């Protein structure tokens, strides 16, 4: 056991706060598919999560977090039918592309021109 009271700059340090996390079994919190995440040059973090409702419907969500305001989480339901395997920000850090293994090409929008082979 460690002694938490150690001399520091001519005084003693006391433990001020302890955060104890609930221990979960691995099967309850590990996803069945890997989650995708991406960090933009604007310090925005995007990550995926699958949500299952009480009636077993699966919704694939994309969450966007501003690291300067982490309490403002923006969640967007995706229209993907398969697990999202890739998230990628553009160079400006303002547009996010999500991809799945399913072979499809989303329709182009004025905000995000796309081209498919």
TrEMBL record:
<dbReference type="InterPro" id="IPR036322">
    <property type="entry name" value="WD40_repeat_dom_sf"/>
</dbReference>
<protein>
    <submittedName>
        <fullName>Mediator complex subunit MED16 variant MED16_i30</fullName>
    </submittedName>
</protein>
<keyword id="KW-0804">Transcription</keyword>
<keyword id="KW-0539">Nucleus</keyword>
<feature type="region of interest" description="Disordered">
    <location>
        <begin position="98"/>
        <end position="117"/>
    </location>
</feature>
<comment type="similarity">
    <text>Belongs to the Mediator complex subunit 16 family.</text>
</comment>
<keyword id="KW-0805">Transcription regulation</keyword>
<dbReference type="GO" id="GO:0005634">
    <property type="term" value="C:nucleus"/>
</dbReference>
<keyword id="KW-0010">Activator</keyword>
<dbReference type="InterPro" id="IPR048338">
    <property type="entry name" value="Mediator_Med16"/>
</dbReference>
<feature type="compositionally biased region" description="Polar residues">
    <location>
        <begin position="106"/>
        <end position="117"/>
    </location>
</feature>
